[in-house]
Amino acid sequence: MSMDMVPLMTAFAFVFLAELGDKTQLTAVMLSSRSSAISVFSGSMLAFFLVDGVSALIGGELLGFLPFKWVSFISGLVFIIFGIFSLIRSKEKIKIEKQKQLF
Fold first, then answer.
1. Based on the structure, what is the number of domains in the chain?
2. Structural domain range at position 81
3. Is the separation of the CB atoms in 25 and 19 below 8 Å?
């Protein structure tokens, strides 16, 4: 069974470019200037696997206990609420900027 590597490499490239200059990456670059690259890489990968592994484990178990219908409803509701809040805040910023222009 062969696997098409194009989607995997495309996803890797996009995530790599999106995360370029991330605080975590800058910290790893700074640490690698003081320590060996192997120890920094190993520590970074271990931390990544621990954080993502625990998150996936807790999320998967939590999703097993909650009904899918409620999870999708609540996530949609939260999405709408954050959208409304961002619209309200942007209108407030526009009002504040207009007031600053008057003075």
1. 2
2. 67-103
3. yes
- Residue 59's identity, in one-letter code, is G
Whether residue 31 is predicted with pLDDT greater than 70 in this model: the reply is yes
Distance of CA 87 to the CA centre of its chain: 22
Look up residue 55 and give its amino acid. Answer: S
Do residues 47 and 93 share a domain? no
User: Is 73 found in the same domain as 92?
Assistant: yes
> What does the pLDDT look like over 52-92, one tens digit per residue?
889 888 988 887 888 888 888 999 999 999 999 888 887 77
Burial 7-26 (b: 16+ CB within 10 A, else e): eeeeeeeeeeeeeeeeeeee
Sequence letter at residue 76:
G
Length of the chain: 103
Q: 3-state SS of 19-35?
A: HCCCHHHHHHHHHHHHC
Indicate whether 81 and 57 sit together in one domain: no
